[in-house]
Amino acid sequence: MVEAGLLVLAFAVGRLTGIPPLSHLRLDLSGLAAGLLAVFPLVGALLWCLRSSWPPIVRLVELVEAEVAPLFRGIGPGGLALLAALAGLGEEALFRGVVQPWLAGLLSPWPAVALTGLAFGMLHPVSLAYTVLAGLAGAYFGALVVLTGNLLVPVVAHAGYDLVALLVLARLKPAGTAVVVQQTPSSTSATPRHRLFGGSMTRTAAHAPGTFSWADLGTPDPAAAKRFYTGVFGWGFEDRPISGGEYYTIFEVGGKSVAALYGQMADQRAAGVPPHWLSYVSVESADRSAARAGELGGTVLAPAFDVMEAGRMAVIQDPTGGILAVWEPRAHPGAGLLGEPGALCWNELCTRDPARAGEFYGDLFNWGRETMPMPGFEYTVFKRGEQPAGGCMAIQPEWGEMPPHWDVYFAVEDCDACASGAAGLGGTVIKAPADIPGVGRFAVLRDPQGAIFSVLQAAAPTP
Questions:
Q1: Could you give the CA distance from residue 277 to residue 259 in angstroms, rounded to a whole number?
Q2: What are the backbone angles phi and psi of residue 52, rounded to the nearest 5°?
Q3: What are the residues facing 351 on neighbouring strands?
Q4: Tens-level pLDDT at each residue, the chain (463 residues)
Q5: SS3 of 426, please?
Q6: How many Å apart are CA 121 and CA 373, to the nearest integer?
Q7: Is the alpha carbon torsion for 341, 252, 261, 76 positive or negative?
Q8: Closest to 252 in 3D by CA, of 219, 275, 229
């Protein structure tokens, strides 16, 4: 273990220099208290890094999440606490217990603090930003020794910060979480929970054809979007490498996959494709569904193609302009959770020609249609058998030049709190929380990169 090795190295270097590494360590309550207080500025810096949009820090956070966090998977809180304690003691014993006093003997205390911090940073070459931040942290720890005369203070501060950082990484990368639910012969049906927006809340490992089963976000800034959505919904996530050094990030709730995001390609950004959520409908054959969409007057934007071993998909546009994907599942059947807080609960087409769209999707997915009167307009519910599959409504004149699109809804426990939290994280509340009689309370939000989504708090079930 590297941390324990550093403590051994500290004693070896101390013997060579004649400086006992723990000679300035005093075990007293004042030192412990000072060390605990010294953790707070470090945690503040960590939070700043996690929320920063400055490109070097964004890249650093992505690098740590992708390459450093996996090293600690499978380690529980007790193990993380032990690692943090060993790191605090080992690194401080070596750098602030031996190296800094040795340099102070040659120079003076404050130049020794600066040089030891520089050396500390250079021994953390994860990236230039990481080296700079580690160097500043090293200088901070060195200053604590000079100001208090007690090595216990930086040991506690260092260990305390490391523990917080490791716990944050563990939260973002849940140990032992298999995010994608694998289909097995014994797990091919959904178990209804209770009704939401006319449908069912389900925990599922497969989806019947004609079911909205997945949604993913194309965004120009995956790291910032990841921080936003995990903050809004409390999602965990797992980054899965794809081509070109990019990642497909799968979000999860309680170990069940619920949605994903990916970085938009340069050609998409150059063509002016805005950040957007894409809805997926499960089908038996992506090829047949794409061909049928063309026959019905739709446009096949992306012919059927394999997504590694996960499945096969195509992207289609209906005759009125709405875009969605059809998904032929293989290893990845789709969302492992629907309708519960943090998961997809509804998909809704906003179009200028609901009747034409209804004919298209009815023929394509064998959906029935049921109309519902709403104040000022008529709402269409698409139905798969007796189960609601999605919704459709006309774009209202007051909405302006809104293009036809499929909106995604995520279930939440408190619509108002979610909207407020999204705004606090840099999002925009497009439609303030409002009630839909008999359905619940909803809001329309926009993330900081520009993608629009909705949230829905289900109405309490009637007796």
A1: 10
A2: -70, 145
A3: 394
A4: 566 678 888 889 889 999 999 999 999 999 999 999 999 999 999 998 888 767 778 777 777 776 677 677 667 888 888 988 998 899 999 999 999 999 999 999 999 999 999 999 898 877 788 899 999 999 999 999 999 999 999 999 999 999 998 888 765 433 333 322 222 222 223 333 323 343 444 444 578 999 999 999 999 999 999 999 999 999 999 888 887 778 899 999 988 899 999 999 888 888 888 999 999 999 999 999 999 999 999 999 999 999 888 899 999 999 999 999 999 998 888 999 999 999 999 999 999 999 999 999 999 999 999 998 887 789 999 999 999 999 999 998 888 888 999 999 999 999 999 999 999 999 999 999 999 888 899 999 999 999 999 999 998 766 5
A5: coil
A6: 65
A7: positive
A8: 229
Residues facing 237 on adjacent strands: 251
Q: How far is CA 17 from CA 69, 89, 90, 103, in A?
A: 36, 19, 17, 11
- Residues comprising the chain, all counted: 463
Separation in Å, CA 313 to CA 204, 219, 293 = 20, 20, 13
Give me the amino acid identity at 220: P
Amino acid at 442: F
Amino acid letter, residue 271: A
Token pair of 201 as six digits: 């809340």
